[in-house]
Amino acid sequence: MHANNLKRIRNVAMFFVVAAVWIFYFFPIYWMVTTSFKTRVDTFSIPPKLFFWPTLQYYISSFTDPKFVKVVQNSLIITGTTVLLSLLLGAWAAYAFARFRFKGSMVMSFSLIIARMMPPIVFIVPLYLLFNSLSLRNTHIGLILIFTVFNLPFTVWMLKSFFEEVPIELEEAAWIDGASRLQAMGRVILPLIAPGLAATAVFAALLAWNEFLFALLLGGPGTTTLPVFLSGFLGERDVEWGDIMATATVAVLPPTLLVMLVQQNLIKGLTLGAVKG
Amino acid sequence: MTSGEPHASFEQGSISQGQQGQIRTAGAEKRNRLLGLPLHYILIAPTFLIVFGLLVYPLGYAIVLSFSNKILTGSVPFKWVGLENYFDLLEIESEMWTSVWVTLRFAVVGVLFEFIIGLSLAMLLNREFRGRTWLRVGLLVPLMVPPLASGLIWRMMYDDAFGIFPYLIRTLGANPPIFLGDPDYALYAVVATEVWRSSPFMVLILLAALQAQPIETIEAAEVDGASGWQVFRLITLPFITPVIIVALLFRTVDSLRTFDLIFLLTAGGPGTTTEVISMFIYRWGFRHFKLGFTSAASILLMIATLMICIFYLRMLVVRQAEVQLTEE
After folding, report:
1. The whole model's pTM is what?
2. A65-270 has which fold?
3. Smallest Cα distance from A215 to chain B, Å
4. Does the ipTM exceed 0.95?
5. Which of A25, A224, A263 to mutate to test the interface with B (most CBs of B within 10 A)?
6. N or C, which end of chain B has less CB nearby within 10 Å?
7. Nearest-CB residue to B305 (from A118, A167, A181)
8. DSSP secondary structure string, A74-117?
């Protein structure tokens, strides 16, 4: 009887703790999504409305605005190309680091980690001048290059850890059958690490999709990405929160869905392979 | 072994000698070269070319600029000023120290709360209860929100006119502060947003560490009569310490680079009360256009970051040495 009561109290306490955790982490998301469906009157009502009649007006006005469509296009093009480029270069370098030991391999792979640790703002002044003199400012290719550079430490280290999990014997079998290194890598190893490759791609996509500093200062009117577009709202005199939150929801949705797909390998990505999930 | 020789690179699997080893190395000379060059160099070349061009070279450029009075636009003639920028930055009344102090408070308070919340939630999620998997997956969501969007969401919730936080405080009968406009509260309002966004990172990493712990050691200790607290302090904590160090390293370094969130929430204000070092560099570079001065500040930030990395990595190394000693 007594033990039973204790257990019940414990369960109730547990319920409240878990509920508090959900509210803390989810209320802001809920608030973002619901505000995007609220009319202006509902948004500014006091007390704040938890229940209301939803409107699609902000989504409709956004997606019929050619400026917004261009912004989404920019984000998609820049993110997509960055992911392809960082995976391609990253996979080559990762394979070299995983399968060869050569002069400078340690120094080179660790210098990538140091590059990951540096605050990007450190590079902004020289990059700004460099991009100006090379006419890379306000070009898609400029942003793609700079996003790729900041993605490479991630992709190289993540892919390296996936390559290292594949036994070398599998490759050797392919060599004996006459395949070259690169053929064996492409036809035997890459299919085996496909899940890892997918996780790495999602990570690279997430970083490029959310990048703000370089997109703001090295980009321009022709390359406005979603984060830069979002930051522009606050300069307006009459802040239309429904509009902002609809745009924010559009910005948050794709990465969230993608990450849910690869959450198994998430921890590895977050720590450059230092901690396994 | 010289790197020019065909066999300079050893293949990681070739541990065994004899017949098998011969098969393994057969044709290696040809296989490991491409266009007459060692294959591994060709594979890493593109990565390092672009890293060199867009990171190393700019860094060198920044060092050179930091000794000049370079200005983006304006009529001041270019001139070498030696260490003057560094002296200006490091002198006692320099605005940089205000910014360093803000950054320190932001990083220390933020990382501390993230760690406390992270460890508690990781311990919670390490137990069995209904809805555990849902909660674990759900924690990913704040992590995926772009820092910029999370800034917008919280700015709306803090809003003095219709925000939910001031409203809740008013319903409790108190007078809410203007969260983002009050010098006493602004920094902590920003920290709260950062903790919301980043603590799931701590949770997930520490949870991974907890789950890697072999259950047998805990059971053995419990059989020997250890209390829950003793098990945690003497067995679990030492086991997860290396992961804690890695997690703290990442979070500390990331809070030094925070820009988006503050740019959006307060833009460094009111005054300079939330101007972290990244905002300081942004302001001097892109509001006042003093590029030489800004470059010097960037170099100082780089040195500080390196020192923090070395500090944590040393902790990791010392810790591993201790483990080896106790095992011997």
Report:
1. 0.87
2. MetI-like fold (1.10.3720)
3. 11
4. no
5. A25
6. C
7. A118
8. HHHHHHHHHHHHHHHHHHHHHHHHHHEE-TTHHHHHHHHHHHHH
